[in-house]
Amino acid sequence: MLSFLFWNLMGEHRPGRHDSLCAHLGRLAANYDVDLFLFVEPAFPAAELAMWLSRSGGGSYQDAPSATDRIQILSRLPRSVLINQFDSVDERMTMRRILLAEDEMLLAVMHFHSQRDWTPAAQAQQATTSAADIRAMEDEAGHRRTVLVGDLNMNPFEHGLVGALALNAVMTRQVAQAGERQVSGRRYRFFYNPMWGLFGDRTPGPSGTFYRAGGDPQTYYWHMFDQVLLRPELMNSLKELRILDTDGEQPLLTPVGHPRTATASDHLPLLVRLDLNVRKE
Amino acid sequence: MASAIPDLWPDDIRVDVVTPVAILRAQEGSLEKKTKGILHTKLSTTTGEDWVQHQLDLVAPLLQKYRVTLLTARHDLKIVYPVIVTARGFRLDSKSGFPTPPPPLAMPNAALEADQREAKTENEFIDLVKSVLQSRSVRGLIESLIAQSNETRPAEQAS
Predict the structure, then answer these.
(1) What is the per-residue pLDDT across B26-36, written as a single tens digit (0 to 9) for each?
(2) Which of the two residues, A152 and B103, has the higher pLDDT score?
(3) Looking at the predicted structure, is the pLDDT value of residue B93 above 60?
(4) What is the pLDDT of residues B35-76, one digit of tens each?
(5) Is the sign of the CA dihedral A5, A6, A12, A17 positive or negative?
(6) What chain A residue is nearest to B72 in terms of C-alpha separation?
(7) Which residues pair with residue B54 across a beta bridge?
(8) In chain B, whose CA is at the least distance from the CA of A141?
(9) pLDDT score for A255
(10) What residues in B contact A118, CB-CB < 8 Å?
(11) DSSP code string of A211-238
(12) Does B66 sit within 8 Å of A89, measured CB to CB?
C-alpha cells in the first residue's frame, strides 16, 4: 500500500502555533502510517519537519527536495524510488516519478493560485497550462498512471477543474473510464475526482477541507480546495480517501467544527491510500 | 499659412521584428552545444481560446529526463506584443538586479505576479529573456544539474 498525506500548513507564523502544529504532525505520522507527507505553505524548514515526523516512530522521513520551494515532500520511501521529474516555472507544481513493484506512476503535487488574487477565469486559464504540463510528462514517461494532489484553490465544480482544456476532472469512475472526451475535434484526458463524494454532512468526515464564512452573497462556507485527482489508469487503486478531522489523538477541528486555525491550519489534511507497492531497493 | 502637418509616427519602427516564439526557438540548441549534450532545452506551446503560451524547459537527460521550466511567455492569440514573461528568477532574484515590476497591463485579470514582467516590444522581450537565462538562479540551476549529471557518468566522460 502506498500512502500519502497532503496538508496546507498555512505558512504564516503565529505565536503559539509552532509547537502545537509540530505536535499534530508528529501524531499524524505516528497514527496514520504515511509514506509521503506533502506540504504546501510549509511554514518550517524541511529538516525541522523531517525531525518532527521522524520522532513519532512512524518511520525515518527525509526531505525530497527539488527546484520548488513552495512545496515540501517528506518521504520515508527509499530515495531511489522517488525521482524528480518536473518543476513548473511558478514553483506551484512539482512532479515525481515513483517506481512501483511492476511499473511506475507519476505524482504531481500542486499549490494553485488563490481565489483572493485570481478570478475564476484566470484560474481556469492557468489550469490549462498545468494540464498541458501533466500531459507532456505523461507522454515523456509513456504512460498515464498519474495522481494529482494539492491545494487547487478551486472547488471540484469550478471551470479549472471541470473544463476539458483544463484539468478535465469528473465526478464518477463510470464517466472517467472512457479515458478521454472529445471537444471541437480534440481529445482531452480525464481525471477522476473522488472529492465530489466527500462534500457536505451526509458523508463521513468534515464537509470540506477549508471553511470560510464571508459577507459575500455567494458563500459556500465549506470548500473542497484540497483534492486528489486520479487518471482512470489508477482510479481503481484508490483504497482510502479521508479528510482528517483528527491527528489520531487530538482534534483538528474547533468545538463548533471548523478547522483549528489558531493551533493547526485553516485547511484540513487529506489522507490517501493506493493499493500499489513501491519497488524494493 | 497653415504649417506642414508633422509625421507623428515613431522614427524607430523596424521591419525585421520577429515573434516571441521565434526568439525562444533561437535559444534551443545552443545550451546543448555549450554543455556538450548534458543539458538541453525544450520549447512547447499551449493555446487557449484567445491566448498563446510558450514555455522554455531545461531538460537533464542523464537525470531521468528531469525537466524544469525556466520561463513562460504569454501573449494574445493574434497580437504577439506585449508579452507577459513568467520566470522563477524574477522572484528569487528580485533583490539583485532585475527590473522592478511594471504597473499592471491594461488587460483584464492581468495584474502581474511577483515572478512576472511585461515586455511591450521585441527588444524588451529579448532583454527580459536574456536577464532570465543569465540570472544567478538559472545559472545555479544549470550548474546543479550538470554536477548531478556528471555524478551519473563514468569519470572519463565527465572530464
Answers:
(1) 998 899 999 99
(2) A152
(3) no
(4) 999 999 999 999 988 899 999 999 999 999 999 999 999 999
(5) negative
(6) A89
(7) B45, B73
(8) B65
(9) 96
(10) 109
(11) EE--SSSS--EEE--EEEEE-HHHHTTE
(12) no
Chain B touched by A119 (CB under 8 Å): yes
Q: What is the 3-state secondary structure (H, E, C) of B24-78?
A: HHCCCCHHHHHCCCCCEEEEEEEECCCEEEEEEEEEECCCCCEEEEEEEEEEECC
Residues of B with a Cβ under 8 Å from any A Cβ are 44, 46, 48, 51, 53, 55, 63-72, 86-88, 108-109, 111, 113, 115, 141
Low-confidence ranges of chain A (pLDDT < 70): 13
d(CA A279, CA A74): 18
pLDDT digits (tens, 9 = 90+) for A160-198: 999 999 999 999 999 999 999 999 999 999 999 999 999
Radius of gyration of chain B (CA): 19
Read off the C-alpha cell for B85.
514573461
* pLDDT greater than 80 at residue B84: yes
State residue B100's pLDDT score: 46
* Distance between CA atoms of residues A265 and A70, nearest Å: 16
Question: ipTM of the assembly?
Answer: 0.86
Q: Which of A90, A125, A133 sits opposite B48 (nearest CB)?
A: A125
Closest residue by Cα to residue B139 from B99, B101, B95, B92: B92
Q: Provide the grid cell at B158.
A: 565527465
Which chain A residue shows the shortest CA-CA distance from B140?
A: A67
Cα–Cα distance, A47 to A53 (Å, whole number)? 10
Q: What residues form DSSP beta bridges with A3?
A: A273
How close is the nearest chain B Cα to the Cα of A244, in Å? 33
Helix A46-54 vs helix A17-32: crossing angle, to nearest 10? 50
The answer to whether B64 contacts A85, with C-beta atoms less than 8 Å apart, is: yes
Identify all chain B residues contacting A140, using CB atoms and an 8 Å cutoff: 65, 67
Cα-trace Rg, chain A: 18
